[in-house]
Amino acid sequence: MRAVVQRVKEARVEVKGSLAGMIGPGLLVFLGVGQDDTEKDSHYLADKIAYLRIFSDAAGAMNLSLMDTGGAALVVSQFTLWGDCRKGRRPSFAHAARPEKAKDLYEHFIRLLKEKSIHVETGRFQEMMAVSLINDGPVTLMLDSAKTF
């Protein structure tokens, strides 16, 4: 499972011109599910993202997590994180999970964040979305659960 995590002052996602999700300070999480991912990957990323110390403390050092700040998360599914651009000019998505599996793990990831009392907003799975944000920092990180076990 892969995630691009951006610390934001605010973020929103629209589907077909209608607001689907919006947060104030917190994290925008683009989440991609791979064909070999399991619930173990969801647990790893949910814990990592909830406790990742990337928010500034009173001294300006990145010492606080989403759990510490009470910030929100906007989670947007993005299978294109599995795009392999090594050959040719068109990305291959052969390693992305099939939609049914991806949706189950995407929803599981969201439930795990909510169980930690994090306010979670979402995009809509398998829809074209317009995402806008005000990046804070900017702070942007890439996480991959397969590179941890």
What is the strand tally?
8
The best one-word shape is: globular
Based on secondary structure, the structural category is: alpha/beta
Main beta sheet: strand number and arrangement? Answer: 6 strands, mixed
Q: Determine the mean pLDDT.
A: 96
Intertermini distance: 12 Å
Helix content: 10-25%
SSE string, helix = H, strand = E?
A: EEEHEEHEHEE
The fraction of residues assigned to DSSP E strands is 35-45%
Q: Tell me the number of helical segments per DSSP (H or I, 4 or more residues long).
A: 3
Question: In angstroms, what is the radius of gyration?
Answer: 15 Å
Low-confidence spans: none
Question: What features would you describe in this structure?
Answer:
With 149 residues, this protein is of the alpha/beta class. The protein has three helices and eight strands; from the N terminus they run βββαββαβαββ. It has helices at 39-51, 66-69, 99-115, and strands at 2-15, 18-23, 26-32, 55-56, 62-64, 72-77, 120-122, 130-144. The strands form two sheets. Strands 1, 2, 3, 6, 7 and 8 form a six-stranded mixed beta sheet that branches. A hairpin with a 2-residue loop joins strand 1 (2-15) and strand 2. Helix 1 (39-51) packs across helix 3 (99-115). The longest helix is centred in the C-terminal third of the chain and has 17 residues, at 99-115. It is globular, with a radius of gyration of 15 Å.
